[in-house]
Amino acid sequence: MYTELNSILNTTPDSFTQGEFVLLSDRQSDASFLIHHFLSLYLRARCKVCFVGLVQSFNHYSAISQRLGVSLTQAKEKGQLVFLEGQKESLSVLIPQENDTGSQAMDFLSNGEEGGDGSEEWGPPVLLVDDLSVLLSLGVSAGAVLDFSHYCRAIVCSQLQGNVVMLVRCDGEGEEDEGDDEGSERLMKGLTHQCSLTLHVQGLPTGYCRDIHGQVEVCWRRRQGDGQYTQKKLFQYKVHDKGASFFAPGTSSAVL
């Protein structure tokens, strides 16, 4: 968990917005450090977390979380964390079939107030997915993935008043790259429309820098009357072994 990022988002384990759909994305960079931040944040907040890891093994996430002061093994043992590992379960979980594995994951999140043995009380449920782009490479259409994200938002965010965090990777050098209509750009645009908070990671426009690894654009979207209020801020960052540093915003804007 990165305290500087918590300060930017006005979030702590004791105080965070419920019912939020958070989209993490990157372009020619790596936003995976943000997945580790939100995982450790919600575990510290005593939320019940269902983590769908489509990219790495449990041991990978566990090793990094350990450096951030969180034990995923302990969280699993006490019934706080369910980890669905990799592509071997992705299709059955994310594209529901007769197999009820996906239903079991939602049942785990909906039983948010009690632990596995009923002895502990938990905060709101959280679903994390790293990363949705993998499904496109498996032949799943962008439309089907968007249907899944909409279903998760309806169940977890609206019905259960929990949070959803999803990571997606963008291909190409910019939004002007049209590419395949069923590709990552369509998925990115659809997810952006659904979410209430986005953190987009990209490289520095000036190229490589030893002291700064890249920049993060943070965008808040809130309903205001009949319209939507959008605020954007740009930060530079550097990732360390046990955390990350975020620097003063380069630009800030608000749009009604």
Structure commentary:
By secondary structure, the chain is of the alpha/beta class. The protein has one domain (18-95, 122-171, 180-233): Rossmann fold. It has 9 helices and 10 strands. Strands 1, 2, 3, 4, 5, 6, 7, 8, 9 and 10 form a 10-stranded mixed beta sheet that branches. It is globular, with a radius of gyration of 18 Å.
Q: Tell me, what is the CATH class? A: Alpha Beta
Radius of gyration: 18 Å
Q: Kindly state the mean pLDDT as a whole number?
A: 83
**How many DSSP-defined strands?**
10
Q: Biggest sheet, in brief?
A: 10 strands, mixed
Strand content: 25-35%
Question: Percent of residues in helical segments?
Answer: 25-40%
Pathway: tRNA modification; 5-methoxycarbonylmethyl-2-thiouridine-tRNA biosynthesis
Protein name: Elongator complex protein 6
Keywords: Cytoplasm, Nucleus, tRNA processing
InterPro entries: ELP6 (IPR018627), P-loop_NTPase (IPR027417)
